[in-house]
Amino acid sequence: MKFYHEVRGCSLAVDIVARELGIALDLQWVDMRTKQLGDGSDYLLVNSKGTVPTLQLPDGQYLSEGAVIMQYLADQRGDTKLFAPPGSLARYRIMEWMSFIAADLHKGGFMPLFKAVTPPAYKQIARQYLHGRLQWVNDQLADRDFLTGPDFTIADAHCYTIAMWTRAHQIDTSTWPHLEAYLLRVGSRPSVLAAEQAARQHGERERAVQQ
Description:
- The protein has a 5-stranded mixed beta sheet with strand order 3-2-1-4-5, with helices on one face.
- It is an alpha+beta fold.
- About 55% of the residues lie in helices and about 10% in strands.
- The mean pLDDT is about 95.
- It contains 7 helices and 5 strands; from the N terminus they run βαββββαααααα.
């Protein structure tokens, strides 16, 4: 399946999940500034929203929104550790985290910091809000290895990807020891190391071409 991906984007979480599941994805890198693919074609013809990620399904249809794609992939394998069985409370707990990460951390917290048009005063408000949310995540991790308990789930792939943006915005995480330990724990997984390496290598190739 073709997977439309961005270096340093939220789409990393989907690549991590696919690698956890042993699902090989054909990575199609998107230049989000120009909305172009590597062959120069228009990404908007794939996803008219112009956002990543997007997954091309075996029947040719396209599925967007990372949280949904991760659920879809886990269901293809029936992996009940990555995503709990349908109808179980554990599944809804994972979905609860997925919603929080997308709304509070990604869109509500980090996105205003990424946007050049965000007024400086609002960026400060966003930072304060984000600090509060990250403190809350830290507190939840005080007695568990992963977000919902002892097992790594799609929510952890999602949370790790977004929380690592603290580095891009020079947000000191040392005051959140449980979160720091969690990021190290997740970051050491083979799936994460491989997904990050793929993104890093593509980024290096792109920089070499531009020089």
